[in-house]
């Protein structure tokens, strides 16, 4: 009971504690759910499972809107049980991916800063239930989120009903590190008063209409740990290229050793880059990103990063233990924000971020595919990469130059799907080197990309394509008949290599 | 002399009056010029001609940075005389287009809000001469622009030297309608304090270092008039579809009859849409756009538009006479801004603009090509369409469903160049109807686009492609071997139609 009083400080809510099963029983076929959770952190862990259990006997389908990818295998489970009508704006689960690509349900792949606008302006289906993980509900009816914020604020404000999962496995020290800012409707909005990553502009929790809280469920379960892929030889080299580029920017007087607020997508290269910063001369760094992974905490520990703003904290099992058992040492150097604020074009442009995201493939003119394998199959989604790359001071894309032991070149004549156009891609980094494309016309970019970034195995083949294209002329020379021949060759012959060549 | 004193109010500058020829003589081979001018308005009219004349005897090449397209055939002349190394960020001249596509010089096609950031942060070549058209230079060394602002402010602040062209053919009543706001360097910036189109946030002219003013040239020449293409049967129908869509938005409670600040690209469809608004029930409209064309002044005259903010005023010959001879009646309902402010993501998103731009082609999933004919040949450039579509409340793209008497379908399986991705395209309008794509997954979009927007001549062929693609599966089904077959068919056979069909 002491725990209940600490966690549910509004006494009127004490009689709303229910089991996950009861809460799940309120959800009907065809409803729309707004779930907390962003890259496996701060997701709800009980009601979705109870709902999936119920669906075994009483099949139902729901729309599932989230912050980003969910942890606890919820996406997997919902896909397996065929419980989804529509899913947005991002996912990263293998089973769900399979369902999306089979056309079993609809997936809307959205810029992560955009979903909130559609909810707020009533473009999407009305949310029947917002289901949010929380540390506590305060006396004032404020819901204190846990390790992510995502779209929880806009979901709960616009939902008909709210279900709270109080997760007692999440440290209570998280209370106070959230900064909830509501921009208001478009057209009635004031400037967002944030000009540095450490600026606090909102309140510590999500103010909800407590009458809408239908039920409160208690859970005790940690976030799904992230799988950290240790830097390998190639990602270490990529990080070195990127750091070399940043040093050149300092030499040119365009950056100082404090760089500029850093954003990085998740994954092994980002991790390697941040590890690379540990041993660099850069100092007093700031992070303004979506997700904080292990490496940012290493940088905080080393005093390299002085402040980090994010939307979610996603850690490995080991790091989770060390961070959350010493969380008081981080509390004044961290802020969690809603994803529309962490990813807001206004703020990204104002602060002039250095943005580092991963490309799936890119082409000789610098267009980037972040989402579709061989042009058709969804991988995860565009996530925040578009919010950042378009508006950042430096839109940097990283990728290994080849995949599948050299059978795939990440650099192709024409990307099979475009997520980031030539207008938004400033710098490309592979393990071969980097290409600074700023201020270059398409024909100038080609040579830099092929020579600096493509794998030697594919350079000649890329040059041949370009030489043939050049005969046709144009601002962006192409041989349309052959533009996707690398992809179709891979589909037919299992390799993009046209000629017999030594395996890499 | 009276005129000189009125126009050059800083006495120190009186001895800097020179001929255009003398000013042009300072420009050397390899230099970079920053010219005023945006969509044929407010461009410099004497020094570029003198430079071209000089180049006949002493060939030279320069980089030419502008606001957008130039008037007075300067782009044509420079292209003809082979005087260009690099041109950015936009052009719209047939001769220049030919040179670009022949690879005679480099053209960097940029979001119009981005150029200023690259100048400010020293990413591009340093500007040797900023050459600006002005009404006057004030006592305080402020340069008062004429009918456009473009990038003039950032050019002059970062140029080594400045040349002013005082154009006495431009009405002095223009003084006071400019609002020059300097955001400052990224990372040291405050929020831009603008939340409505009529907000005045800056000063009336460009504050320059008068020591950098090398010379002042007097001219007396009107802007090149725009060629107004009167609404035809199809553009009138497109405007009606768009207005129907807006009415549906009002019914759904997402808009009021005041709509939201309107942005529109230039051209015949935009013109038709604005004409359509003349007879509509919408009222108290606001415009926040790049260019004001004739139709906006008709709407101001009719009291339909209460305020218009822009970066340039581009009028037909007739309208120019009527507007500038009665300019005092418009002065309190107009503001001209630098293009980074008229096109700023921060402001477009905050105000929630309704953005209407023209597509060259679009595909069955809603990706838009705004720039490249048959994937290779540059038309004009992306202009501000990306700044607006990405950040607007409604990113609307308009196009006629067919071109060249039906030999080209504007809706294809896969666009041959991507400027706007599926993530940024909300609504498509053709003369056939409109497709509201918001909240739809790719497979849901296909039917809407084909049925509502494609020309009947091509619907079956589009469906056949999609049915074949569906067999391959995926989030975005495609048959990569055939993705560009419509374009290659057109190149070989002069039509995108696969089967013998009646001419339209």
Automatic annotation (TrEMBL), chains A, B:
Domain Acetyl-CoA hydrolase/transferase N-terminal span(s) in chain numbering: 15-166
InterPro entries the UniProt entry points to: AcetylCoA_hyd_C, AcetylCoA_hyd_C_sf, ActCoA_hydro, ActCoA_hydro_N, NagB/RpiA_transferase-like, Succinate_CoA_transferase
Native species: Fictibacillus enclensis
GO molecular function, one term: acetate CoA-transferase activity
Cross-referenced Pfam families: AcetylCoA_hyd_C, AcetylCoA_hydro
Name under which the protein is recorded: Acetyl-CoA hydrolase
PANTHER family attached to this UniProt entry: ACETYL-COA HYDROLASE
Residues covered by the Acetyl-CoA hydrolase/transferase C-terminal domain: 326-465
């Amino acid at each position: 009971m002491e725990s209940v009083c600490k966690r549910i400080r509004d006494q009127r809510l004490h009689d709303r504690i229910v089991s996950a099963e009861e809460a799940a029983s309120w959800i009907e076929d065809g409803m729309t759910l707004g779930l907390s959770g962003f890259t496996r952190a701060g997701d709800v862990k009980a009601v979705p499972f109870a709902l999936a259990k119920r669906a075994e006997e009483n099949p139902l389908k729901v729309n599932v809107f989230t912050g980003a990818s969910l942890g606890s295998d919820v996406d997997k489970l919902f896909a397996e049980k065929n419980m989804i009508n529509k899913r947005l704006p991002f996912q990263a689960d293998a089973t769900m991916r399979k369902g999306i690509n089979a056309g079993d349900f609809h997936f809307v792949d959205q810029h992560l800063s955009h979903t909130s606008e559609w909810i707020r302006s009533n473009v999407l289906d009305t949310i029947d239930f917002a289901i949010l993980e929380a540390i506590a509900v305060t006396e004032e009816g404020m819901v204190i989120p846990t390790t992510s914020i995502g779209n929880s604020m806009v979901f709960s404000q616009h939902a008909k009903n709210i279900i709270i999962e109080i997760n007692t496995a999440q440290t209570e020290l998280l209370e106070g590190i959230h900064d909830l800012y509501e921009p208001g409707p478009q057209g009635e909005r004031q400037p967002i008063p944030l000009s540095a990553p450490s600026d606090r502009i909102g309140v510590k929790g999500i103010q909800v209409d407590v009458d809408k809280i239908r039920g409160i469920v208690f859970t005790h379960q940690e976030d799904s740990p992230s799988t950290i892929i240790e830097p390998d030889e190639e990602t270490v080299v990529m990080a070195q290229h990127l750091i070399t580029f940043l040093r050149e920017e300092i030499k040119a007087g365009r950056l100082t050793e404090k760089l500029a607020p850093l954003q990085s997508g998740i994954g092994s290269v980002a991790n390697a880059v941040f590890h690379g910063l540990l041993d660099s001369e850069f100092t007093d760094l700031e992070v303004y990103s979506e997700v904080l992974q292990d490496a940012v905490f290493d940088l905080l520990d080393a005093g390299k990063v002085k402040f980090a703003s994010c939307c979610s904290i996603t850690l490995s099992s080991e790091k989770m233990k060390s961070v959350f058992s010493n969380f008081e040492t981080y509390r004044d150097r961290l802020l969690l924000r809603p994803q529309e604020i962490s990813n807001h074009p206004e703020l990204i442009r104002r602060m002039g971020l250095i943005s580092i995201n991963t490309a799936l493939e890119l082409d000789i003119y610098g267009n980037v595919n972040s989402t579709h394998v061989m042009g058709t199959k969804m991988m995860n989604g565009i996530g925040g990469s578009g919010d950042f790359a378009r508006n950042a001071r430096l839109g940097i894309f990283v990728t290994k130059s080849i995949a599948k032991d050299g059978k795939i070149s990440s650099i192709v004549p024409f990307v099979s799907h475009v997520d980031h156009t030539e207008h938004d891609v400033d710098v490309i980094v592979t393990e071969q080197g980097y290409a600074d494309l700023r201020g270059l016309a398409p024909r100038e970019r080609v040579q830099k990309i092929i020579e600096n970034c493509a794998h030697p195995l594919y350079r000649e083949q890329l040059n041949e394509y370009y030489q043939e294209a050049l005969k046709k002329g144009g601002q962006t020379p192409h041989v349309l008949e052959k533009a996707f021949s690398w992809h179709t060759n891979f589909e037919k012959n299992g390799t993009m290599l046209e000629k017999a060549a030594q395996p890499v």
